[in-house]
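Page 42, continued from yesterday. The earlier attempt failed because a stray header line got pasted into the input along with the sequence. Redoing it now with the clean sequence only.
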Amino acid sequence: MKKKKLFYLLFVSFTVFFVLSNYAMSYIDPGTGSIIISSIWPFILAFFSAIGAFIIKVFWKPIKQKILNFKKNKKRKK
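This time it went through. C-alpha cells are written below.
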C-alpha cells in the first residue's frame, strides 16, 4: 500500500511540475522538419505496401482466373 501512495505522489508531482511550467527554452532548427518527415516516410510506405500486399493476396486468384479464361476464350475464337 505504501508503494502505491509513493507512486501516486510522484506521478502527481511530476504532472503538476510539467503542467505548471511557464516556458521552455528550446529551439527547432529548419532541418528538424525534414528529419521528422524522413523518419515518418518509411512507416507510411510500409503501411501502403502492406495494404497492397493484402489486396494482391486476397484478389490474386480471381484476377488470375479471369486472365486465364480470357486467354482460353481468345484461343477458342481463332
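Notes: The chain has two helices and no strands.
Reminder to self: strip header lines before submitting.
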